[in-house]
Write a structure and sequence with these properties.
Order of helices and strands: EHEHHEEHHEHEH
CATH class: Alpha Beta
Oligomer: single chain
Mean pLDDT: 85
Distance between the termini: 20 Å
CATH topology: Rossmann fold
Number of helices: 7
Low-confidence stretches: 64-85
CATH architecture: 3-Layer(aba) Sandwich
Structural class: alpha/beta
Largest sheet: 4 strands, parallel
Helix content: 40-55%
Radius of gyration: 17 Å
Number of strands: 6
Strand content: 5-15%
């Protein structure tokens, strides 16, 4: 079992597509995402870019997990999917943003609200601050390492106790994996 699970901010998928990260270098690492990242990628206006981004998302997050049995409705060609791969529910539910069945009610301790308010203060209320706060809260509560190139999100997530890194941590993490021989 891998030592760490990485929660990828949406901007990481763009970095992979733009060649800043070689996707093959990420094999062996464990990733998680919420519906938020998937939704943001699906909102990419350029159809070709959107399709490529969703392909990267699928490879990193929704990869099929091999099982010993075939189950109708669960198994897919080339392997069987167990649950939903690396998809996890958000830790809070926000009306108009969260998807039914893919979000939890939240614990009401103010972490989500505090992060959102501080992001709004830092970047003048960017439209996706609610999304970023949901991603960060989910990473924090699940002990995932949040990977982002958004300096405001990095700052706020670490302030609230989250472990964060940038895309370069992924490169070093993949190099530290034990090498197998065929």
């Amino acid at each position: 079992m891998p030592a760490y699970t990485y929660m990828l901010d949406t901007n990481v998928f763009n970095h992979v597509l733009d060649g800043r990260i070689n996707i093959d270098d990420l094999d062996g690492l464990t990733f998680a995402a919420t519906h938020i990242q998937s939704d943001e990628l699906r909102n990419t206006k350029d159809e070709i870019r959107r399709a490529k981004l969703l392909g990267i998302f699928s490879r990193l997050i929704e990869h099929p997990e091999p099982t010993n049995t075939f189950v109708a409705g669960v198994s897919v060609a080339g392997g069987a999917r167990v649950g939903s791969g690396g998809m996890v529910p958000t830790e809070s539910a926000i009306w108009g943003v969260s998807r039914w069945g893919e979000a939890k009610w939240g614990v009401g301790d103010g972490i989500f609200t505090g992060m959102r308010q501080e992001l709004d203060a830092l970047n003048k209320g960017k439209r996706n601050n609610v999304h970023d706060a949901l991603i960060a809260e989910t990473a924090i509560r699940n002990n995932f390492i949040l990977i982002t190139s958004d300096s405001d999100l990095f700052l706020i997530a670490t302030k609230y106790g989250g472990a964060c890194g940038n895309i370069f941590i992924l490169k070093s993490a993949s190099k530290s994996l034990p090498q197998t021989t065929d």
